[in-house]
Amino acid sequence: MAVLIQCQRKRLFKLIINRQKIYDDIVNQISIAPLYMLKYPLFVQFKGEIAVDTGGLKNEMVTILSQYLFVDIQTSIFTLNEDGQYLLTDRCCPQNAFLLGWLIGKALYHNTVISFNVSNLLLAIMSNNIQFNDIQDYDFQFAKFIQDSENYDDVYKEYVDILGTPKLVSQKPRKISLQHAVYTRYFKNSIESIKYLQKGFMSTFPIPASYFLNTQLISTIFSTKLISVEDWRTHTIIKCSHEIANIFFNMLENNETMRSKILKFSTGMSNVPNNSFLWLGKPLFSGEIQQQFKLESIASHLLPMSSTCSFTLKIPIVSSEEILRQRFLIALECDNLEIP
């Protein structure tokens, strides 16, 4: 169950969840928690595991839940445009809409990356601040239709025939309410879900969420760009020999597809905020400790090991990139290699 705990004089919202039942556990615990508790920083514990959450377990929770929402039950929550950008579907139920808003808010709060191509329009809807560029970026034809309807009477009549009489923010010149246009076009049967999406997001912050309602700021948690090995190395605390570190980073340089897998193995995230390790584990609020990526070595006969709690990766002392790559291929497929 969800509990409120006191840790180092700071109130935390503790989630105790099963990895295999993460959706049900989170929904059940959020649904019975008072709203004021949802505003506290998260403290995550996975059932049957002894790892202590100093940052990594929150990342894992966000990553696993994101995978479930954006992939496993994608069709019941999202629709995608031709560029693969996500937007809430009009079939999304209020419960999932609230959970999505809560997830995005907590990812922002804890500076955790959600590696899916969420549209700026969805973020603008969540922030209740839709701009013309948000619509244009997601659906160019609809944006043009709105613009032409404002400028030409015959197109305006066509708009009324298709979507009904729009809400106008001004008569002369004619300006159509962008929020009303978007809601009518995409969410005619799911306005309640939009309200729950916004409520879920706003429930996550200890101060008014409007302070964070900026699509550029929120977009920093949605990263799909290639991970830079040079940046990774620059912002890593190296606690092993430079020879072993060179083997590791050279292996990453020559294996693009393994980068996100190894990062997830080490931190619980598939990418880094703002596309830089400089922001890895950097708290949104002052007074919280930043976790940096750490690279350590272990005995040569072992497989790579990780502690997502402390963003620590331990690699065996090997003589070549290929040997290390083979070890990672095994380790990445194994469970229960997390160290306390």
Task: Please render the helix and strand layout as text.
Layout: E1 3-7, E2 10-17, H1 22-32, H2 35-38, E3 42-46, H3 56-72, E4 78-80, E5 86-88, H4 94-109, H5 120-126, H6 132-138, H7 140-151, H8 153-163, E6 168-170, E7 175-176, H9 178-186, H10 191-202, H11 215-219, H12 229-234, E8 236-238, H13 242-253, H14 256-267, E9 293-298, E10 305-307, E11 312-316, H15 321-331
Parallel strand pairs: 2-3, 8-9, 9-11
Antiparallel strand pairs: 1-2, 4-5, 6-7, 10-11
Enzyme class: transferase
Pathway: Protein modification; protein ubiquitination
Domain HECT: 38-333
Write structural notes for this entry.
Its EC number is 2.3.2.26. GO terms for molecular function: ligase activity; ubiquitin protein ligase activity. It holds the Pfam family HECT. It catalyses: S-ubiquitinyl-[E2 ubiquitin-conjugating enzyme]-L-cysteine + [acceptor protein]-L-lysine = [E2 ubiquitin-conjugating enzyme]-L-cysteine + N(6)-ubiquitinyl-[acceptor protein]-L-lysine. By secondary structure, the chain is of the alpha/beta class. The protein has two domains: 1-224, Hect, E3 ligase catalytic domains (Hect, E3 ligase catalytic domain fold); 229-331, Hect, E3 ligase catalytic fold (2-Layer Sandwich). 45% of the residues lie in helices and 14% in strands. It contains 15 helices and eleven strands. The strands form four sheets. It has a four-stranded mixed sheet with strand order 8-9-11-10. Strands 1-2-3 form a three-stranded mixed sheet. The chain has a two-stranded antiparallel ribbon with strand order 4-5. Helix 4 (94-109) runs parallel beside helix 10 (191-202) and helix 6 (132-138) packs across helix 7 (140-151). The longest helix is centred in the first third of the chain and has 17 residues, at 56-72. It is elongated and about 75 Å long. Residues 1-9 and 335-340 have low confidence and may be disordered.
